[in-house]
Amino acid sequence: MMDDTGCKHPAFRVREATAEDNAALLALDRACVVAAATPVAFDRSPNFFARSRAYPSWRVYVAEGDAGLIGVGAMALKTVLVNGAPLRAAYFYDLRVAPGFRRLGVAKALGDAIRGHTRSLNPAVGYSLVMEGNIPSETFVQDRGSRPLRSCALSLIPVEAVPITGLERVRPLEEADAMSVLRLARAAHPDHDLFPFADVESLCDRLHRLDGLGFRGLYGWKSGGSLTGCVGLWDYSPVMRMRIVGSEDAWSWAAGRDLHLVFLMPLGFQGPAGVADAVRLAAERLRQESGAGAARVLAVPHDLADPGYAALDAFRPIRLGFTLFGLDLGGRQDLSLGSRMAFVDPADL
Questions:
Q1: Are residue 119 and residue 235 in the same domain, yes or no?
Q2: Residue 7 confidence (pLDDT) above 60
Q3: How much is the average pLDDT of 107-136?
Q4: What is the mean predicted confidence (pLDDT) over 170-175?
Q5: Residue 218 CB-half CA count within 13 A
Q6: CATH assignment of the domain containing 163
Q7: Which residue from 40, 80, 201, 322 has the fewest beta carbons nearer than 10 Å?
């Protein structure tokens, strides 16, 4: 295959991924270090597709050449709140091209296939999260019509670094508590766009989907006889482990170790100290469980402008920066996505 300059490009085809692609996708993912401000590598074994299981509707496409799989990209359809109203959104993720096949039209072909499928689902908006400093991905999504909307972060707090003070009146929560959990999560994220739990059914659906994917339980604490905070512990290591590439001083404690992220999801609290209580509770539950060679790390994604997460600063987190990109897909000009704070769904990371 030649382009209009006469340069010969390798032939490939784009198709929907199948379970039989798992081993090849894991190898492709290992070969792709994310070229960001803090370079990271991921290990998705044993199941590349496990990440997508958190979503009710998703599709993965692969680019296949003579040498095997040379690219991958995915989308998920979600119902989220935007300006307080539920609507359908497309989340674009997992775009990877093998190092030897970049700048050859592979990413564009994958993007075209994903966009074609997305149009058939008729979502109102589309969005993606790009790591800070990942210039190729930033350029790619903007060339396809997305615009930067919000600056976000993944705050990482080593479990061993959290002082344990003890929280009284903590109890495990059950599905019967789901409405109270949803109220607290909404109270902690008022008017946040992209909040993924439009009703209690969608919250319960997410928790059921995480069964077998590392979800370790849901806990709540009371004050004055009523539930004032809740936190779920989602150990992401059955889905993905992360390793920092390089030896920056801020990451010296992580050198040579797989980071086993534990997302606080769902997370609900009242008042500025609520998120700090959640961090201490999570660390207390996990402190005795870190295995040799692994670094158990609490992972809290959030909009950088969200004052509700300011209390995280007391734990001196290390932050990976992300930019939220979005685009209008439904022809509505009144959504003003990006003018309000965004909820950063752990499933999207």
A1: no
A2: no
A3: 95
A4: 90
A5: 24
A6: 3.40.630.30
A7: 201
| Domain finish residue from 119, 152, 185 | 152
Tens-place pLDDT, residues 274-321: 999 999 999 988 886 655 556 789 999 999 999 999 999 999 998 999
Structure tokens given for 8? 């010969």
Query: What mean pLDDT value characterizes the chain?
Result: 90
**Three-class SS string for the chain?**
CECCCCCECCCEEEEECCHHHHHHHHHHHHHCCECCCCCEEEECCCCHHHHHHHCCEEEEEEEEECCEEEEEEEEEEEEEEECCEEEEEEEEEEEEECHHHCCCCHHHHHHHHHHHHHHHHCCCEEEEEEECCCHHHHHHHHHCCCEEEEEEEEEEEEHHHCCCCCCCCEEECCHHHHHHHHHHHHHHCCCCECECCCCHHHHHHHHHHCCCCCEEEEEEEEECCEEEEEEEEEECCCCCEEEECCCCHHHHHHCCCEEEEEEEEEEEECCCCHHHHHHHHHHHHHCCCCCCCEEEEEEEEEECCCHHHHHHHHHCCEEEEEEEEEEECCCCCCCCCCCCCECCCHHHC
pLDDT-derived band of residue 124, with 50, 70 and 90 as boundaries? very high
Whether the per-residue pLDDT at 36 is higher than 90: the answer is no
Check residues 288 and 237 and name the one with the higher pLDDT.
237
**Tokens 């007391």 correspond to what residue?**
314
243 and 122 in a single domain? The answer is no
pTM, whole model, 2 decimals? 0.92
- Spatial CB neighbours of 220, under 8 Å, sequence gap ≥ 6: 170, 171, 173, 177, 180, 181, 227, 229, 230, 231
pLDDT at 4: 46
